[in-house]
Amino acid sequence: MAAAMATEAAAAGHVHQQQLFRVVDTALVAPAAAAGPALPPRSIPLTFFDVKWLHLPPVERVLLYRLSPDADVPAILSALRTSLSQALRAFYPMAGHVRMPTEGRRHELSYSPGDAVPFTTAEYDVDIDHLIADDSVPVQVAALAPLVPRLPKGRAVLAVQATLLLGRCRGLAVGVTVHHTTCDGAGSTHFLHTWAAAAGADEQHRRQVPPPQPPVIDRELIPDPRGLYDIYLSSMPPMVSQDDFEFVLGKHQDPGEDKALATFTLSQQLLQSIKSAVADEAARRGMVMPPRCSSILATYGFIWSCYCQVRRAAAAAKTNMSYFLFSVDQRSRLKPPVPDKYFGNCCCPAIATAPTDEVAAGGMVGLFAACAAVEEEVREGAQERWDACVVRVKEAVANGTLSVAGSPRFRVYDLDFGFGRPAKVDMVSVAKTGAISVADARAGGGVEVGISLPAATGDMDRFRHSVADGMAWLLSSSQRLDHSDR
Q1: Are 359 and 370 in contact (CB under 8 A)?
Q2: Which of 48, 184, 322, 330 could pair with 345 in a Cys bridge, judged by C-beta atoms 3.0 to 4.6 Å apart?
Q3: CA dist., res. 430 & res. 256, Å (int)
């Protein structure tokens, strides 16, 4: 009964959000022609890094900005469209679409003159403060969902939406939806930084701060001597539709709108406490090779352990093992390495595994088990294991895995389009995929983690308590050690 009531409440809330939201205009933005000669038609074959994403949902990111009372909104929207056109000239594949293979050819990213990106302008009768919650306070995904643009038919790979927030405190939401076959997170945020630089920098600023480097668009930089493209493609269902992507989750994929989304900031002090705790435990165990715990590995281990404490019963019903799925950038690891600004996918999945009872134990036992498993997977993630990559991911997903989207390296809180830094950045797509989002902390220093859990089950409250208890334990332990050193 309670679950049915929660479902009805979520549906009613979704209808209410739709009533508050209205589309004002939809325009098509093509790569700028004034910056040089017209771009010729181009076809870019997908690599084995790209093809793995054909059936997975797109990445949906919403950047929320506060606007001053006297902000010139028409000028801001005009500047966003103009600068988007300029950025698309360098990142022209994002204006194209994925083309089905013809005989003897691969799936391709295809761009033709006239291709353009839909730019939707909308209004939303909601106060920005209702969407920017304090740390660890959840926001209903249904309230954020209208800010996310949908990809148009034809297997387009990018859609953009600018939504004016009309509450007591005005704001602007920039929603960006990118299909992963085009590029990884490094590539998509490189595009966003290029767009923001074109939108927000006046001539004096451009002289002082150079714009981001242009992307390197050359799929021939990715060698495939083992035929991984064919291996991966044969492990996935065939593309059937001529008009759209088919996601693995199917036509009835979870829209995620009955969930809540909350973010948790792991401060530099907390991350250092995790590293120290792991090092001390390794020494206590007499380990010859203790886990090398970086800030991002500390983040992964802490959040994974907290998550397993909440979902322990559900995980144990499937298997006695827990899985944690994250990506490892291969740009510097390939031989020869590819440029840092390579535009495309260049990540391989890493899957950390550990007994559920250990990771979910809480305290030092759970934290150490999680951090050690993540570090081991990074250390042993050899390219020789790539052949079974898709099969391993399928196995982990079937057994229930926690996965990661994003990275603190992408600096999403530096995306200033000329009206200030974002007040909040949310990756709304994690509500559909069950991943956690990871980003730089908005206040500077530390890591911000976003997670979406069902609103009616109590999982979000239990996760918040698990995180709060873990933080309190770690910080108190760190303070005790500091006092004992004195």
Answers
A1: yes
A2: 184
A3: 8
- More confident: 209 or 12: 209
Residue 336 banded pLDDT, cuts 50, 70, 90: very high
The count of other CB atoms within 10 Å of the CB of residue 473 is 16
Positive or negative, the CA dihedral 83, 87, 92, 98 is negative
Q: Which sign does the torsion angle of CA 427, 18, 166, 200 carry?
A: positive
Report d(CA 121, CA 204) in Å as an integer. 29
Question: Binning pLDDT at 50, 70 and 90, where does residue 313 land?
Answer: low
SS3 per residue for the chain: CHHHHHHHHHHHHHHHHHHHEEEEEEEEECCCCCCCCCCCCEEEECCHHHHCCCCCCCEEEEEEEECCCCCCHHHHHHHHHHHHHHHHHHCHHHHCEEECCCCCCCCEEEECCCCCEEEEEEEECCCHHHHCCCCCCCEEHHHHHHHCCCCCCCCECEEEEEEEECCCCCEEEEEEEECCCCCCHHHHHHHHHHHHHHHHCCHHHHHHCCCCCCCECCHHHCCCCCCHHHHHHHCCCCCCCCCCCCCCCCCCCCCCCCEEEEEEEECHHHHHHHHHHHHHHHHHCCCCCCCCCCHHHHHHHHHHHHHHHHCHHHHHHHCCEEEEEEEEECCCCCCCCCCCCECCCCEEEEEEEEEHHHHCCCHHHHHHHHHHHHHHHHHHCCHHHHHHHHHHHHHHHHCCEEEEEECHHHCHHHCCCCCCCCCEEEECCHHHHCEEEEEECCCCCCEEEEEEEECCCCHHHHHHHHHHHHHHHHHHHHHHHHHHHC
Count of other CB atoms within 10 angstroms of residue 250: 9
191-202: pLDDT as tens digits? 999 999 999 865
Q: Is the pLDDT of residue 18 over 80?
A: no
355-388 tens-digit pLDDT: 999 999 989 999 999 999 999 998 876 666 788 8
How far is the C-alpha of 37 from the C-alpha of 301, rounded, in Å? 50
Instruction: Report the alpha-carbon distance of residue 212 to residue 205 in Å, rounded.
Output: 13
